Amino acid sequence: MAADPVAITADLIRCPSVTPAEGGALAYLERVLGGAGFTVHRMTFSTPGTPDVENFYARIGTQGPHLMFAGHTDVVPAGDETGWSHPPFGGDVAGGELYGRGAVDMKGGIACKVAAVLDYLAAHGGKPRTDGTGSISFLITGDEESVAINGTPKLLDWVNARGETFDHCVLGEPSNQETLGDTIKIGRRGSLNGTLIVIGKQGHVAYPQRADNPVRGLVTILAAMNAEPLDSGSAHFQPSNLEFTSVDVGNKTVNLIPGEARARFNIRFNDCHTLDSLKALLQQRAEKAAGGTIKFRFEFEPSNAAVFLTAPGPFTDVVVNAVEAVTGRRPTLSTTGGTSDARFIKDYCQVVEFGLVGQTMHQTDERVPVADLTALTKIYRKILDDYFV
């Protein structure tokens, strides 16, 4: 009897694994995959000042090629549960849809992977390949919806320290925009948050000659930072974009020239830049605008949100062809959207993102069509068939 992705999704939804709580989700996966012959590791990682996080790594097979399925079982809070038409942790099916927090992001995707792998192994004598080669693994984190410190990056380091390597990865983030099969994410832009600080001299507005108004300098440098595009885009990415999100002088008095002015900003950048080269470009533009007379500095928030790109090739072809075979749609290869755990995985192997349709993720009444769970399972099964052929 084939594994049921709807039942597995419902079981996972009933585990209240709101970040950083494990909620029983990893224990459930341990029972299911352990029973199928996987060697399972439950790992807890800690960092001072952040919650401990439980994570999960399971593998069957010891040789290559090694295909990893990655994802997260942690979910965002349900909010006001009285606003849900079905309990957020009930896993109810109504009107052909499965309701619950994480149904789309991304317990549904994990369930489809598990169901596909169980069916695949059952058809191949419990092994990735009948000749004994090949490996399949699950790398599941517990803090993707939060700071992503004690999850995927540390779990990848732990696996790497054991001498294990990956060849390719399918990350189950909800990549599709409108319909299952319309989009595969082959890349993501990087993200950099920073603050521009201009230092002046406080003084009375009636005696400006005794002060140095930092607002003028801030406006000058802001204009220079926005005067020219950061780049013109690249083969797979749209142009990088800088957005100022706040300007503040902390001044509640109308007759006081402030001593400091600040502007916060975010840049979503493409593969024309690295974090370091982007910081250097901003410094260069600001220094030119300052002309040696405006005192300023940048403060950048720590960032692990670097660009990732898996260029089209044999691996993306396997995923594209599987999607088209099941849905009849030729998916777009996209690099839009925010960050994901692929930014960590890309340092270890090629990775693409393909999961459910993301329209209701993080919303009240998050839900997924039952038909989409069935179809996504077939797509993952087709990927396995073609990958290990």
Structural features, described:
- By secondary structure, the chain is α+β, with helices and mostly antiparallel strands.
- Helix content is 29%, strand content 25%.
- It has nine helices and 19 strands.
- The strands form six sheets. A six-stranded mixed β-sheet has the order 1-2-6-3-7-18, with helices on both faces. Strands 12-14-10-15 form a four-stranded antiparallel β-sheet. Strands 4-5-19 form a three-stranded antiparallel β-sheet.
- The protein is elongated.
- The model has no long low-confidence stretch (mean pLDDT 96).
Short description:
29% of the residues lie in helices and 25% in strands.
If you average the pLDDT, what whole number results? 96
How far apart the termini lie comes to 23 Å
Q: What structural class do helix, strand and pairing data support?
A: alpha+beta
User: Largest sheet, if any?
Assistant: 6 strands, mixed
Described by the principal axes of the CA atoms, the overall outline is: elongated
Strand content: 25-35%
Low-confidence stretches: none
Strand order of the largest sheet: 1-2-6-3-7-18
Number of helices: 9
Count all strands and give the number.
Answer: 19
Rg, nearest Å: 24 Å
Oligomeric state of the chains present here = single chain
Helical amount: 25-40%
H-E string: HHEEEEEHEHEEEEEHEEEHEEHEHEEH
